[in-house]
Amino acid sequence: MIRRLLVADRGEIARRVFATCRLVGIETVAVYSDADADAPHVTEADYAVRLSGGSAPANTYLRGDLILAAAKRAGANAIHPGNGPLSEDPEFAAEVAAAGMIWVGAPAKTLGTLHSKVHTKAIVAEAGVPVLATATDPTEVTLFPVLIKPAGGSGGQGMRVVRDPVTLAEAVASTRQETGDDVFCEPYLENVRHIEVPIIADTHGAVVPFGERECSVQRRYQKIIEETPSPAVDPALREQLCRAAILAVRAVGYVGVGAVEFLLDDHGDFWFIELTPSLQVEHAVTECVSGYDLVRLQLLVSEGGTLPMPGPPPIRGHAIEVRICAEDPAYAWLPASGTLHRFKVPDVAGSFRPLPQPGLRLDSGVVDGSVVGAHHDSMLAKLVAWAPTRQEAARMLASALTRTELHGVVANRDLLVRVLRHGAFRAGDVDTGFLDRHPEVFAPLLSSVDAVRISCLAAALAGAAARRASAPVLRSLPSGWRNVPSGSQTAVYDGPAGPVEVGYRMNRHGELSGWWVRAVDPEELDLAGLGQAPTLDDHPPTVVVHADGSRVDLDVNGIRLTLKVHRVGEVSYVDSPEGSVALRELSRFPLPAPEAAEGSLIAPLPGAVRRVLVVPGQRVRAGELLLTLEAMKLEHPVHAPSAGVVASLPVHPGAEVDTGELLAVLDPE
């Protein structure tokens, strides 16, 4: 029996496991790096042990020896690996068992088999499950396009599409260098769906599938939207997929919770990809429609128990999950970091466990004030909508995301809303190329000119009201009040499309008599022309119903709306019914900033230098790869913007850099 359980992971998955442990009476142990000392998963555990390797995952959460030492020190008799790399590590699983502890995961022998995707595919194919042709020697590939995959990788890392033989060798070398692993090739299928069958198998021979999940909306081969059931799977196809999943599980001797993953084409043909031996991020949608706590079943199986259900549970309604990630989709999915000043999702019905009835479920690894760093995966939280139908679930989820207050860190929220509201998604017309075919979903949610202008006006009014409320004298006077006609009130913000000036006039009764928002050339910011009302004022009639430092109620052309304003430092986060915008107030007379030397290449994000491919004095071509940065488990290339000579290279592999830090100086030819 499990008495005290250590979770060898962090963030959302650790909190998820702890929630079930509390329900079933199991004591919990968290581990943490220096960067996570105040993280929610640490404070929620009964006991917590610091990992002495600093902050980097490779020196902390991925060190099996440190995890085992922490478990022994805390008196744990079981270890749950979470859903990170340790959940797939056969050596770590064997070490846990050798230490006399209960391993809450697949057996070490099975993990050893699954570690080789090529070997796994051969075993599964022999069991009668369809698989794609595999080439372990890339030089034997003759038909294109092909997909290059690391032999033992996961999570999409290192995968590359090659469409012609000319670039094959370079792509293979890049994957090998990125992952440190052997590679294999398989045909790349266009316009296919990513379908997976979640399963659980006990030690007594029972294998139970839980329907299927659709995971086709992806970026960089990583899922961002998952749902169950799939709109492309009918009962007959579901039975075929589940039968194939059972065959695959039995063929490799799998025990525990996992997922058998397939590619599905328009004709109903499918092919096995891999068997993922962990409690996947998207398990929450399965819990919603099945009603079962998968973590509870996982713990039961690890104790040698028998599964309580005779077969696949019936599907109740529809569930859709989105992964809210700290990244900027419009800028090549650039990871974001910083302090999450506010994270508030409206109308949440529950967290970290199955819901008793349809509603919203939020499983989050962060709270207000959490610091999002560059060391870990970019996912902040996952939000799930469970409803009687797919259309209701998509509408509920999009509405909740739109009204979510997410301040301080750039996230993919707007893209998720646009996908959920897109006609093709609503019609179930999705596949792994959905984002490539629909670039319109990358537009910001708050994109109409009038909506942005209204948000700018609200920020200016809230800022003025807050200053008025904190004034040492005459604070009862309306903001902007004058006893004689005077100039306009103005503020300058750095908005989504660049600097803008907001101006408004108040009459002697404190009422808004006119306002404008206009774009400003950055070079004008220190000139004396600002503050003068434009000759053309085309904004609709607007009445300020209420304004304080955190809320502005406006009547715009007869329609009343409320905007929430949250100011942190110089930034105002404005949330309206149409979406959210961040506005940084600019000084009218900014101090001159030091200019970077010509040819300077600066870090676009914080991270670690992974590879340096050039040396000082080397001549490079335009577009040539100079170095790569690793942040949030992804590799980001830095290319030469033009031809030239590397004049300076102040970084080295393994160096930690911050946003804006100098990486190299390139002298142009």
Automatic annotation (TrEMBL):
Residues 116-303 form the ATP-grasp domain. Its cofactor is biotin. Residues 588-667 form the Lipoyl-binding domain. Keywords: ATP-binding, Biotin, Ligase, Nucleotide-binding. PROSITE patterns: ATP_GRASP (PS50975), BC (PS50979), BIOTIN (PS00188), BIOTINYL_LIPOYL (PS50968), CPSASE_1 (PS00866). The keyword Nucleotide-binding applies. SUPFAM superfamilies: Glutathione synthetase ATP-binding domain-like, PreATP-grasp domain, Rudiment single hybrid motif, Single hybrid motif. Residues 1-440 form the Biotin carboxylation domain. Gene3D superfamilies: 2.40.50.100, ATP-grasp fold, B domain. This is Acetyl/propionyl-CoA carboxylase subuit alpha. It comes from Winogradskya humida.
